[in-house]
Structure formats: C-alpha cells, structure tokens
Amino acid sequence: MPMIPAPEAKARIVEEATRLGIGRVGFAPAAPPSRHEQFRRWLAAGMAGTMTYLNRQERRRSDPRRLLPGARTIISLGESYYTGRLPAEIRNDPSRGLIAAYAWGADYHEVFWQKVRSLAGWIEDRMDGARCLSYVDRGPLAERDHAERAGFGFVGKNTMLISPRAGSLGFIGEILTTLELPAASANRMPGCGSCTRCIETCPTHAFPAEYVLDSRLCISYLTIEYRGVIPRELRSLMGNHVFGCDDCQDCCPWNERFSQFTSEPAYYSGLERKAPQLSDLAGLGEADYLERFQHTAVLRASHRMLLRNVAIALGNWRTESALEALEPLLHHPDGLVRAPAVWAAGRVNTSGSSRLLSRLRATETDPRVIAELTVPPS
User: Fold this and answer.
1) Each residue's pLDDT tens digit, 19-66
2) In terms of CB atoms within 10 Å, which end of the chain has fewer, N or C?
3) 247 part of the active site
4) Entry pTM
5) How far apart are CA 225 and CA 2, in angstroms?
6) Residue 72 to residue 180: CA distance in whole angstroms
7) Which of 93, 137, 280, 334 is flagged as catalytic?
8) Cα(224)–Cα(300) distance, rounded to whole angstroms?
9) Strand (E) or helix (H) holding 241
10) Mean pLDDT over residues 91-105, rounded?
C-alpha cells in the first residue's frame, strides 16, 4: 500500500469522520497534557473523592505515549448532544426529577463510541502501518486538554471544554495513532473573562476557585459516582437532581448563545426521559428500572443509587404527595435507600411521617438508618 502524504491523510480522515456523522475533528501532537501537574495537585488534595481509579491511572495519563507506544498524533472528535433546554416550569417543578441532558437520549458510550471505533478501524485499514487506540470517556486520557490543543475551544472556569462556536454541550472522543499528521494551528482562543456565573450558580458550592472543581461537592459526582449515603449537609442543596447536574452549563453565556442542535437522532427523547415524575421513579423495581433506562447513560447509577437520589429529591419537595411516594422507600431492603428516605420523611414533618418513622424505629437494624432516625432533619 503506497504511503499517503500527511496532509492528504488528514483530509481523508476528516472526510470519513464527516461521513460517519462526527461533527468536529481536530489534530494535536501526542504530547503530555498541559495541565497534568495541576491534575496531580488536585488528586493530592483529595478532590477526586472516591474515584480512586484516577490515582491508579495518573502515571499513564501523564503521557499518551504510555498508552500507545509510538503514538505521534491525537485525533480529537466531538459531537453535540444539545436537543434544546427544558422549559423553566418543568425544570423548577419539584415533583419532577432532573436528569442531566447528556443522558436524555441513547448512551453516548454506545452511539458515539461506535463512530469513533469505526473511524479508528478505517484509519488502520487505509493508512499503511497505522496503529490506533480509541477512547470515549473511559481511558486514562486528559481529553479536554488534548481537545483544547486540537483547537476545539478553551477550558472554562467550570472546568468544561467550551467551544466559542458551539458551547460545552458535547461529547469528546480521541484516537491515538502512530500516524504523524499536521496539527491544528495555534489560534488564540477567547475565555470566560470576568464572568463567574457557573461558580455563583453551583448549588453545592463545588468550585473552591476558578478552574477548580471539588468532586466531593459536585451533584454529578454525588448522584452518579458516589456509592455511599450522601452527606446530610448537601442533601437540601441538591434540589430535584436525580442523575447528574447541568447548572454550571445552563447558566453559561456561551451555551445560551451558541449551543448547536445535534444531528444525531439517537440523542432526542421525550419529557419523561428528561424530567420524570419523582413518584414514578420511586415506584420502579429493578426490572422496571433496567427496562425504562436501557441503552441510556442513566444505568451508570445503579437502581439503589437512583432510588437514594429520588428519596433526597422527595425530601426537597416536602409535600404530602412526596410522603406517599416515600413510603415504599422507607421499607426498601437496602439501607442506602432507607437512610435518605428517613431524612426526607422527617422534612415533610406531618403526623403521617411521624407514624411511619415511629414504626421504623421499632424494627430498624441498619446503623446508617438508625443514625438518621436519631438526628432531626435538616
């Protein structure tokens, strides 16, 4: 197979990516990420919380050539998932649970990942001797750093990669390849300027400084990554978020002005996948949960974790209807669910909730739940 000149190879890759439906392509050298030392300090400060895999991956993350020996280029790939904003009356309805927009439609780990893998396979088939390794949100690769270097945009104060043409509501994938391809031109990017909306908007104050996210306070981390009983002092701040959080993106001027609708049909969905009724979620058995959210990113949270999150949202609703939905959660076999349900029932603070909690005190054996029963709700 004859060697293809690098500029022509790059052009062919862009053409094939476009044919596959990938909206953005950029090229950068397979060099160490520019913010790795900052990442190491972030880990040392404990801000990764229980995501200990990040510590295990730190050395491999420090240089992409540790992942693919001989790698010369990182091809960054982007795809919008923006399908519109929830109306304010839906977003602010405490009887509904909010799901982060990236999980409204089909799971990007399946949809976008398939496109990235297809492009990597195409490169290996068409480019003589090329070897590739591809990732979508699952490998030890500093995807935002590399995409920034490839010309996608800039990292904002909320730590998201923001494109001045499309905002931050998009997925990023990477292909490491042994091909040496022309890198993106070093264009000067805009930035956040004096804007601090994301920092001021965050309900749990998860940004201790600009460009620094403390995962331990982040609602996305708490509802998806954290496996334990969510700390009491954070629950009332979580509102009706049951899977992820978009608050620091929804308030961003770049997203308000420049978000581009996705061309991928699989990311579109109906209202009950975006902001389902809390009472419906509370009544889901595990089989129902798996059926309702099959092929979506919501399955990243287990059934019991979702019910834990729903219990907290019901506690923030604080109505008789919320108490009715909480009753089965108070008798759930897992203390991870019962503990926040006790807290939530106490916040409703009616004679009905008092009776339910009194019955539970007589039979409860899980120390996590007993702890909730002995402390006044906050």
Assistant:
1) 999 999 999 999 999 999 999 999 999 999 999 999 999 999 999 999
2) N
3) no
4) 0.94
5) 48
6) 5
7) 137
8) 7
9) strand 241-243
10) 97
